Amino acid sequence: MEMRNPYLMFLGDVEDQLAAKTAKGIVDWRPEWCLGQLKLAGCVADLGIKDMTIAEAVAGGAKTMVVGIVNSGGFLPEHWISAIVEALDAGMDVASGLHIRLGDMPEIKEAAARNGRALFDVRHPTRNIPTGKGTPRQGKRLLAVGTDCSVGKMYTALAIEKEMHKRGMKADFRATGQTGIFIAGSGISIDAVVADFISGAVEELSPPNDADHWDIIEGQGSLFHPSFAGVSLGLLHGAQADALILCHEPTRTHMRGLPHQPLPDLKTCMELNLTCAQLTNKNAEFVGVAINTSGLKEGERQEYLAKVEKELGLPTVDPFKDGTAPIVDNLQ
């Protein structure tokens, strides 16, 4: 993958901030690549960067327009097509993390061809993937798991990698979702892998390495989310993680998108994840808890973190606000 930056981040007309989590992740971790944002009428999300038209972005040097949104089903709304075609006609490449392929849409395919521009569908693997084998391999691996989807597993993994690099440790973030791939520049979007090959894909992402090297594997979904549990299980088996991090958002009252489905309590979630992880690594263990406290006031935040740390006996932090030093300390 050779996506050119700077990027123009396309947000369409999404109805909430979480729908723009792909774009937000890129802005947070690669701000120097993000020139501006393009929002259609009615868009609620905002990345905190300059609003731009396509013409302004091209004049400013933008090379790729990134469709930086997520939605249930990964579809591309028909009324977004004209903006994508306009970007291609203006000389930009276009990249997307949606399930639907840009090249499967005739207007977009034709615009790319007539302008000699590239289309990047980062969600779709371009390599042959074997089935998982569960064979022990050298190196160390850490996997982020969660009580729900969209609770901060990618942020936690990136923050841990950053802390390890500060300490001179050998570590690599391994991207398993479209946002992570945009940030890392490589990876496999696990939710686009045929089910039989999910664990094999994770083994491919985290091959044998130096004995003191850590692969920090981005988690996906939750074993307790009926829509995404299969992907979560494949990750657990393929990662053969030595260390697990539990990620949680405490203001949730139900699984994202499923009002009838309650969240598990933290201990129940840990027990099931540990049972599944130990199929391929009997020594797997939890080493920390990452809490997304953005929905809590400061006093509540500190009280909640202290409560969880006492109950679970593990270092408990908000990776975004507190960093991950206590968790990395627990690995050494």
Explain what the structure shows.
The longest helix has 15 residues, at 298-312. The chain has helices at residues 21-29, 54-59, 81-89, 106-115, 153-166, 178-184, 198-205, 229-239, 266-277, 298-312, 319-322, 325-329; strands at 7-12, 34-39, 64-67, 93-96, 119-121, 140-146, 170-174, 213-217, 243-248, 285-291, 316-317. The protein is globular. The protein has 332 residues and is α/β, with parallel strands linked by helices. Strands 7-8-6-9-10-11 form a 6-stranded parallel β-sheet, with helices on both faces. A 5-stranded parallel β-sheet has the order 2-1-3-4-5, with helices on both faces. The relative contact order is 0.12. The chain has 2 domains: 7-121, NAD(P)-binding Rossmann-like Domain (Rossmann fold); 140-329, P-loop containing nucleotide triphosphate hydrolases (Rossmann fold). The mean pLDDT is 94.
Briefly summarize what is shown.
This protein has 12 helices and 11 strands. With 332 residues, it is of the alpha/beta class.
Relevant terms:
five-stranded parallel β-sheet, 332 residues, 11 strands, 2 domains, alpha/beta, Rossmann fold, single chain, six-stranded parallel β-sheet, 12 helices, globular
